Amino acid sequence: MVCATLLIVSGCTCKKAKEVENKYNIIPAPVSLVTMPGVFCFSENSSIIISPLNEETKIAGERLAELLYRSTGVNIRVVEGRKAVSRSIFMSIDTTLDMGPEGYTLEVTSKKILLKSPTAEGLFRGTQTIRQLLPPQVESMSDTNNIKDFTVPECIIKDEPRFRYRGMHLDVCRHMFSVDEIKRYIDVMALNKFNTFHWHLTEDQGWRIEINTYPDLTAKGSVRKQTLIGHGGVSPEKYDGTPYGGFYTQEEVRDIVRYASDRFITVVPEIEMPGHSLAALTAYPSFSCTGGPFEVAQTWGVFDDIYCAGKDTTFAFLEDVLDEVMDLFPSPYIHIGGDEAPKTRWESCPDCRRRMKEENLKDAHELQSYFIKRIEKYLNSHGRNIIGWDEILEGGLAPGATVMSWRGTEGGIAAAKQHHDVIMTPGSHLYLDHYQSLPEGQPLAIGGYSPLEWVYSFEPLPSDLTAEEQKYIMGLQGNVWTEYIVSDEQLEMMAFPRAFAIAETGWTPQLKKDFEDFLARFMEQRARYDIMGINYFKGDYRNTEGREK
Ligand code: ACM
Ligand code: ZN
Question: Which of 173, 227, 289, 468 is the right S-S partner for 345, CB 3.0 to 4.6 Å?
Answer without folding.
Answer: 289
